Amino acid sequence: MTGDSWYWVRDSATVVDPQQVADAGVMTSLAADGAQGAALALCFMGPNVSWDWAWDQQGPPATGLLEQKEALEAQIAQVRDRSQQAVSSLAVDLAEHARWLSMAALIYAAAEADAMGFAEACQRVSALPCGLGASNPLFGLVGSLPSYVRSMQAGGQLEGGSMSRPTSGMHAQHQLRALADSIFASPDGTAAPSMQAVSGMVGTWWLWAGRLVWGESSGVVAAGPGGSLWGRPHGEGPVPFISLKASDLPSNSPVGAALKRVAAAGPGEPMCMPSPLPPKTASELLQRLPDVPDAAGVGEVQILRHRRPDGSHSWSVAIRGTREWLPGTANPQDMLSNFQEMAGQMSDQRVAVLAAMNLAGIGPADPVEFVGHSQGGAVALSLAASKEVSERFCVVSVLTAGAPSAAVPGLDVPVLALENTADVVPSLDGRAADAKGKHLAIYFDDQELAPGSMYGGHLGSAHGLETYVAAAHRLHGSIGADAALQGFKEWEQNRVRSLGLDQEGTVTESLVYTSARTRGNVSVDVP
Amino acid sequence: MLNQWSYFDGGPIQSAAEQAATVLGAHKLLEDAWWSLLVSYPQDWAGGAAQAAEQKRSALMERVFVAKDMLLDLHGLLVARTELTASASRGHSLGLDLAGAG
Fold first, then answer.
1. Which of A34, A70, A143, A152 is buried deepest, with most CB atoms within 10 A?
2. Are strands A367-373 and A394-401 parallel, antiparallel or unpaired?
3. Inter-chain contact B60–A44, Cβ cutoff 8 Å?
4. How many whole angstroms separate alpha carbon A185 and alpha carbon A229?
5. CA pair distance A35, B65, nearest whole angstrom
6. What is the ipTM for the molecules in this complex?
7. What does the pLDDT look like over A209-219, one tens digit per residue?
8. SS3 of A285, please?
9. Which residues lie across from A324 on neighbouring strands?
10. For A103-145, how does the pLDDT look when each residue is reduced to its tens digit (9 = 90+)?
């Protein structure tokens, strides 16, 4: 696979008719077949040319003729070998380009949330595994549901059945959309509203299920460097936070119990980073996400504080993905927050992140970026798009990896969304990442990524963070070689410049915040 | 004709004339491939990916063109080889010493 044939870029400059791209894929595939036939024919020629000379009957030819013949045959062998090599490699590259175009057609059709267009593109690009039950996508989803749910827990990749790599993410997208449309008609013909309605409905079920099992959630406590805060979603306005002191709270009160739990799990003080150098590329930034140690039963948010030589600060708010696959647990990084986010509601995880940002002391003029994987990416986008954040903080950049992002409106800040085409998690909102505002979406096929990956040819699951780190790493390495990555290059440059990470002497440290839901009635007064 | 379909080193051995015909057939396939690529241009596609796709398509068309030229060269050599055989055969049957004549 050549360096530029494993990813697809979609930005605001993209104008496309997916069917034309599908047709181009088909024509290129025909060209590949022709070149393959030519390569086979040349191969069949064999290495030798017979000497059509009745040697036995007529004796050997004259000496000069033999020399002439040998010189000619040497020349023939040379040109034949070069031709065989050229045509064979041409056939391979044509087939790769045909596949690249076919995938591009599917991605664009998926992004347009046009089920008929997607099904048609699928039919045209039959070279790709396209087992979507296009005539009845709802049936396809129901049939795939058990493996779909398992895939969510196992790593976001559907194996077997009608959906397989590398297009399973796009198939899941359309099946989910079909399910959503069958429950809630989409008034404006787009997918997101109906998926939001479904997510809201499922979120409500799970909220009640959580209440039955663990009791009613009444807010979120977050603790770490800077103290501890309690807060809960409060209508449409900003989240009101109340500063807490453990000594003032009985440990058997809901807030006291939650505070005790998060304080025991968190480090409390700023941590030394494994490397104090600021993350300057998308892959370096994503690599910082697992720096937070896992703590049982509580959520974690990491905030990177970049101390610049002039004493000013910039910040990276790093949000990890789902930690609990049950609804309404004590940990706000659970499935309930997932459904709340996709429904466009204020999730408890969003409250936890806001509390951490307050505790870290991020100033209104300090440049701040959000980065998140999976649920973390959805929360990052929601926060960047919220009025509360835009009024109180100076957001300069957003990076999401494997996150559903279509439900969030276009932002004024540069957004980079990375999506693996085999990962079903970004498909949960029923459509692909869009190219609204300054939104740059890069799709990639992790099958083609593995051989050259920084993990020695082995990647984890389709949804695994390491897959996204490896993709970002390779994209960065391809910047100079491909004009299509100009947007990616600009996104990285803008981020470094806006956060001041290019200033010599900038040092990064990590602030870790832990969080937990509170249960039952909370006696503190909400202002 | 001696050795025409005998096997040497595990592969079929064709006469130069047959090889020339094979090469012409391969050339025709590449000619068709070039035309397929020519019409594989999505008119309504703009943006970074479209630019990359167009660059790739142009580069592939150029490579098809070069490969076609190579096959024409090969064909020419094989024809020359056939003619050399024919000359040798004619010369021998006429009792001529072609080397000396050359």
1. A34
2. parallel
3. no
4. 41
5. 12
6. 0.81
7. 666 666 667 78
8. helix
9. A334
10. 888 787 766 655 566 666 666 665 554 444 333 444 444 444 4
